[in-house]
Amino acid sequence: MTGQNTPTSGAGDTAARADLAERAARAGGAVASGFFRRRVAVETKAGKTDVVTRADRDAQRQVIAAVRTEYAEDAVVGEEEDELKEVPETGAAWIIDPVDGTNNFVREIPVWATSVAAVVDGRPVAAANVLPELGDVYTADAEGAYRNGEAVSVSAESDPEAMMVAPTLWWDRNHRDAYAAACRETVERFGDLRRVGSAQATLSMVAAGSLDGAFTNLSANPWDAVAGALLVERAGGTVTDLAGEPWRHDARGLVASNGRAHDQLLAAARAVEDVD
Fold first, then answer.
1. Which CATH number fits domain 160-275: 3.30.1640.10, 3.20.20.80, 3.40.50.620, 3.40.190.80?
2. Are the CB atoms for 131 and 149 separated by under 8 Å?
């Protein structure tokens, strides 16, 4: 998906979608923030660490309501409830994660994001990741990537032994060996490891140069990665799948970097895949 030409949609329409992505993400983030550290009830979905709250559902509804005011016919791909779970290959769609990092959210850790990406014909054109508790808003449009309205770029670090890298997404209880391998590959190949607990926040930090790279061998849900992957690309970084090809929403693996030691990150992700 990233690393390819932007799909055909007029510059004005792309700018409008970028503006709406930010406004919708801000609105959804405000709803979720209203529940933060308020002892909201927690439910589990597929596993003990796959959690959801009323904040997730209410925030997603708010984002959709914002989108529908201007693009009533566009498809919606959302993590919660009965929205689409796959990105349409044709037409316009909005990809929503109302609270990316719900485990952080329910444990009162302020690193979580409300994420909105606009795609046309399966490719992203705009994105916004809002981190309400940190006061940061990351956006991407046709021209670049921004944090709080200021242009950002990936880091210039080229020495792997000085790089800070994040294994990202979540290896569940059936894949503990892969999780351990991801941590081992990181500490053996790079200077330091960070586990942020939100894939969208992680990718936003790669885009802004706070982290030098992030990787997983897993297939990401579109709401966990599309917005962040576009941010990294627009900030001058590299985003690929396990084969080293430009990343798409349906790819196996996700490797995002400043482009200066991408092969090392790819090797780390492939080593985890061998274990998994």
1. 3.40.190.80
2. no
